Amino acid sequence: MADFDESFDWVVVGSGAGSFASALVMRAAGKSVVICEKTPYVGGTTAKSGGVMWIPNNRFICADEPDESAAKAILYLDTLCGDSPDTPGTSPENRRAYVDGAPRMLEFIIGQGVEMERTATFWPDYYDELPGGCKTSRCVTAKVFDLNELGDWAGKVRPGFAPFPARLIDGMKKDFAAKSWRIKLTIARIGLKMIWGKLTGKSYTTAGAALQGRMLQAALAAGVDVRPECGVGELIVEDGRVIGVVTAKGRIGARLGVLVNAGGFAQNQAMRDQYMPGTRAEWSNTPEGDTGEMMLEVARVGGVLAQMDQMVGYQTTRAPGFAEGYVKPAGQGMANRPGAIVVNQSGARYLNEGGSYELFCETMLRKGTVPSWVVLDQRYAEQYPVGGKMVGKATKPAGLIESGYLKMADTIEGLAEAISADPATLRSAVERWNGFVDAGLDADFGRGSREYDKFLGDPFHGPNPTLGRIDKAPFYAVDMIPGDVSTYGGVLIDAEGRVKDARGAPISGLYACGVTTASIMGGVYPGAGASVGPSMTFGYLAARHAAGLGNQI
Question: Fewer Cβ atoms within 10 Å of its own Cβ: the N or the C terminal residue of the chain?
Answer without folding.
Answer: N
